[in-house]
From TrEMBL:
Keywords: Hydrolase. Belongs to the glucosamine/galactosamine-6-phosphate isomerase family. 6-phosphogluconolactonase subfamily. Its EC number is 3.1.1.31. InterPro entries: 6-phosphogluconolactonase_DevB (IPR005900), 6PGL (IPR039104), Glc/Gal-6P_isomerase (IPR006148), NagB/RpiA_transferase-like (IPR037171). It comes from the Bacteria. Residues 11-235 form the Glucosamine/galactosamine-6-phosphate isomerase domain. This is 6-phosphogluconolactonase.
Length: 257
């Protein structure tokens, strides 16, 4: 597993723009190397702002959108089209504006599918299993990039501190009683997150500075789930200055003046 690299940008706006540029470049690199790429999207403010910046970037046309698999790290268990769904946010910010192959967009299902949240988690696990290839060494694809937002409590995806889901070996779990509303969610688990080639934890805001410090420390994932978010080849903590304000300066690279 990789040791995190910390990169700090001036503010949330610059962070979203810089991460957008990074997503475009990484996707183009993966597509030139192997023909296609796989990206895991996150909900939340910075995650969605990043998608909007991708849509706004002229360089977005360098991406072969039809040869891209898009997955989600977590989803709020709400009906299709609900404005609170991470999928709805991603579609409005980016997917409605680019030529994605609908068969390669993999949303987690909501209650309108007729499934319970447990069935939805199992259906997603099955979809991941079908997409996994032998070289992925596991029940899910080894994604090129997994983007994750983080909460002030250190949660990533819908893995909250102290929750049994943090011990779960299954690739996808149903979450009840999320402290961040809405309470019912579907989430990838740490084994799938950690099997990604690259994990990018994207965080803005002073309220998250303490959790960022802990996520980069020796804390266990049970206390600070983001401390368990590491990629096989690369882990990036992409932060704005406020979110980076409590980490030792020796850890961070300031890259926006
Ligand atoms: O469904 C969700 O809410 C998320 O995927 C969650 O993990 C989110 O990324 C963080 O809570 C950060 O969200 P904010 O950037 O809005 O604080």
């Amino acid at each position: 597993m990789s040791v995190p690299t910390v990169i700090v940008h001036r503010d949330a706006d610059m962070l979203a723009k810089a991460v957008a540029a990074r997503v475009i470049t990484r996707t183009v690199d993966a597509q030139s190397a192997k023909g296609s790429a796989s990206l895991v999207l996150t909900g939340g403010t910075v995650g969605t702002a990043t998608l909007a910046e991708i849509a706004a970037s002229p360089a977005r046309d360098a991406v072969d959108w039809r040869n891209l698999d898009l997955w989600w790290g977590d989803e709020r268990f709400l009906p299709d089209g609900d404005p609170e769904r991470n999928e709805t946010g991603a579609r409005r910010a980016l997917l409605d504006h680019v030529d994605v192959d609908p068969a390669r967009v993999h949303p987690m299902r909501g209650p309108d599918s007729g499934m319970t949240v447990e069935e939805s988690a199992e259906a997603y696990a099955e979809e991941l299993r079908r997409a996994a290839r032998p070289e992925d060494h596991g029940p899910a694809p080894s994604f090129d990039v997994m983007m994750l937002g983080m909460g002030p409590d250190g949660h990533v995806a819908s893995l909250f501190p102290g929750m049994p889901a943090l011990y779960d070996e299954r690739p996808v779990v149903a979450v009840h009683g999320s402290p961040k509303p809405p309470p019912i969610r579907v989430s990838l688990t740490l084994p799938v997150i950690r099997n990604s080639r690259e994990v990018w934890v994207v965080v803005a805001g002073e309220d998250k500075a303490g959790a960022v410090r802990l996520a980069l420390s020796e804390s266990g994932p049970m206390q600070v789930p983001a401390a368990g978010a590491r990629g096989r080849q690369r882990t990036l903590f992409l932060l704005d200055r406020a979110a980076a304000s409590k980490i030792p300066s020796s850890l961070s690279r300031i890259s926006s003046p």
